[in-house]
Amino acid sequence: MSTPISNLRSLPGVKVDNFGFGMEMRRKLEIEVMKGNMAFRDAFHAMLQSVQMPLADCLRIVQDNIQLDPHFLDFYYWAKRCNIPIVVLSSGMTPFITMLLESVLGSNPENIYVVANDVEPHSFGDKTTGSGWRIKYRDDSAFGHDKSLEIKPYFGLPSGNCPLLFYAGDGVSDLSAASQTHVLFAKEGLDLVDHCRERGIPFIPFDNWSSILDTMQGIYEGLSRAGITGYSNVV
């Protein structure tokens, strides 16, 4: 079985909307990606480059302004008890994600693995000297981090060895992964739901982690009664 955590969509939103070129421009770029007119990696790079402030300040702002869904803690402890690993498969950047997880769950949270982009030094021209940064993409795909590439190897395993994979997402960075999982949770009212409906991709709508936990507990208990074991996780 595989499980989802939030893709932490709000991390870049806080920075871009309040300290970059704003929500209106961010939304325009997201729509262009949805229409296929722009690569996600280019749109996301433009968003982050509009936030010209030192990395330490960005980390502090995120830490002060972002909170995980409170129901995710219930999900985390349940998955930990059941030995179900959680993978944060994100288009965001590892320093931001690990900082947020550690601030909520404590240092080195167990049972959570982060697979994301990174950051690297970069000058903001005359505005900074040595404290600038930019995103360092994980791969050369149009997404910068093609999440489907992290999932596909599981489906190449011999019959009976592939874990049941669950994925939870909400936005344009999740488009490539939407059809590459056994069970997809898509957050209501956001872009991934529209994408799935347009393409006929089955999904379970969710509003918060309470409903995801209820669904996964039901599946887990049913499989356990049937004597089926072997669980994994993708977010």
Automatic annotation (TrEMBL):
InterPro entries cross-referenced by the UniProt entry: HAD-like_hydrolase_phosphatase, HAD-like_sf, HAD_hydro_PyrdxlP_Pase-like, HAD_sf
Gene3D superfamilies (alphabetical): 3.90.1470.20, HAD superfamily/HAD-like
Pfam families: HAD
GO MF terms held by the record: phosphatase activity
Keywords: Hydrolase
Protein name in the entry: HAD-like domain-containing protein
Source organism: Aspergillus caelatus
Origin organism lineage: Eukaryota, Fungi, Dikarya, Ascomycota, Pezizomycotina
